[in-house]
Amino acid sequence: MAQSEVDAVEAGVARLGLVKGMVVQEFLYDADADEALRNAIARVTGQALVDDGYGDVTDAALVWYRNGDDDLADVLLDVQTLLDDGAPIWLLTPKAGLPNQVEQRDIEEAASLSGLHATSTFVISPVWKATQLVEKGRQK
Asked: CA-CA distance, 82 to 119, in Å (whole number)?
């Protein structure tokens, strides 16, 4: 990865609002996940991301979602199970024009069905964009 891409990932991670000591749980991790992004998150929080089998309360969630994965609304309901009240959910989807991209309207519909609201979306890495999802009635 070129230094400019590393810098862009670092800047994207800064926008997630994560701090040292946070437990970040990730869902739908697969071989196409951005390892530089995962490592940058671990550096900020001071610990590795925990997987979807983690059984304790978490401070934030990271969902790697691609068109064709499980039903997004169902995934988002599962994600909220151990998430601390008011904790952010970051939905990572392939950027527009890439294979398995997810339409923004599909994200918004699934968020609404699961009691969430999509607030902001930005490019976080060379392949992935991040959309923040919060409980309805809460906005960043």
From this structure: 21
